[in-house]
Amino acid sequence: METAPTRYEALQQVAARYPSQQAMADAFGVSQPTIWRWLNQAKQIPPTFVLLAESLTGISRHHLRPDIYPPEIPAAPARFCGVDHTAPLVAFNRVAALRDGALRDGAPA
């Protein structure tokens, strides 16, 4: 049975996708010393870069930061579908909604 990589091993896999630390820094929009600090001091990717790393390299967010993205949480859909317009209307200020005619007989207009 194969075990999941550690945070550091996942970060190393991300770095291996680039020919140099400078190339990785350019892709992430940070400086090369920042990449060096991730690899040699923090040994994990900062939370603000996890989703970018996943989209650029395909390495799972669950492996990069399991403390933030536990494996049992399903991945978000690839495309945000927007607001559910089939949900019933919610009137937070029912008195004002009745007064303004937004609700008739207690039901949405």
UniProtKB/TrEMBL annotation:
InterPro entries: Lambda_DNA-bd_dom_sf, YdaS_toxin-like. Pfam families: YdaS_toxin. SUPFAM superfamilies: lambda repressor-like DNA-binding domains. It comes from the Bacteria. Gene3D superfamilies: lambda repressor-like DNA-binding domains. This is YdaS family helix-turn-helix protein. It comes from Novosphingobium humi. The lineage of its organism: Bacteria, Pseudomonadati, Pseudomonadota, Alphaproteobacteria, Sphingomonadales.
